[in-house]
Amino acid sequence: MKYGTLILHNGNEIEPHTGALSIPIYQASTFHQHDIDHPGKYEYSRSGNPTREALERTLAALENGTRGFAFASGMAATSSALAILKQGDHVIAPEDLYGGSYRILTRFFTEFGIETTFVDMTQLDNVREAIRSNTKAIFLETPSNPLLKITDIAGVVAIAKEHNLITMIDNTFMSPYYQRPLDLGVDIVIHSATKFLGGHSDVIGGAVITKSEALAAKIYFVQNGFGAVLGPQDCWLVHRGIKTLRARMEFQQQAALKIAAWLKEQSWVTDVYYPGLPEHPGYEVQQRQASGFGAVLSFKTDTVERALQIMKRVQLWSVAVSLGGVESILSYPAKMSHASIPKPERERLGITDNLIRLSVGLEEPDDLIDDLKR
After folding, report:
1. Catalytic site residues?
2. What is the CATH number of domain 24-242?
3. Residues contacting residue 162 through CB under 8 Å, at least 6 positions apart
4. Tell me: the pLDDT tens digits for 132-171?
5. How far from the centroid of its chain's Cα atoms is residue 241's Cα?
6. The pTM is what?
7. Hey, which end of the chain has fewer CB within 10 Å, N or C?
8. What span, in angstroms and rounded, lies between the C-alpha atoms of 325 and 327?
9. What are 287-324's pLDDT values in tens digits?
10. CATH: 3.90.1150.10, 2.40.50.100, 3.40.50.300, 3.40.50.10750. Which one for 245-373?
């Protein structure tokens, strides 16, 4: 079965009792037990819910994993994956990752004795050199947010296996439609399901998918113990959004390529960051490990004033936090996604005040270009 068909036919699309082509929203907190000595499959919705199960099984199928888990947000998913670590463990992470992930690693997990070293993961030697005796996990994000840097996933996995380390990756930007890290040897995949999986800017959610049953058991323990589960209605919304994943990703990527190429030719643009451009440093690596380049790109204007004027004047682009929706979103990383990173560190990484991130939606790309041009 080809992947485009698998999205719609993975065994979780038909309600078995009625034949409904949409899994119902089981808006129930608890379930009657007919035999107290032999409880049924569902007892309490924190531990399991039929609507959530359908979504979680779909997530596992899309990433070619063993188990999938739905969480209340992308950060709940990231935090729950990291929570399988213990006091004294050390993590290696990319220096240019989502600000929320940076914040949870530097200001929360440090309180529980978990250390993190941030490195430029575009160079594999940096990963090797950061390994310590207490290193337990490598956290990847590729393409990175917001500079779209590309990490060689298979290269990092090879290093991790040499040292018996767990690999985790935030796969939000690519979605499983374009990139399936478990097939490259990664142990745990994380998504903000708010973004391309949900796809309509109407739900907050997160996902974790594991390759092994052993790691699945650890993630489920955290999910059930912390209880940061995705509610049944939100599960239904994400499940419905996934059904159009292929159509959305293909159109949005085509538009992103066109907009990136146009931006590259503008005199007021100094840099364009998009792995679909042949001159991008990670272009060849991205072609090896993914089937596409996604719909997110960033660029820098010649002045901060111009960046601010663009955000004030656009009419079709929504100026907002988040990405991956059907509408095109323009974000300002310095004051939105990466505001939690200290300014000197942001500027060292290249996340400057003239950087704008674009998430290309389903509008006509020529209209989006005209809006930026105007």
Report:
1. 46, 98, 170, 195
2. 3.40.640.10
3. none
4. 999 999 999 999 999 999 999 999 999 999 999 999 999 9
5. 15
6. 0.96
7. N
8. 5
9. 999 999 999 999 999 999 999 999 999 999 999 999 99
10. 3.90.1150.10
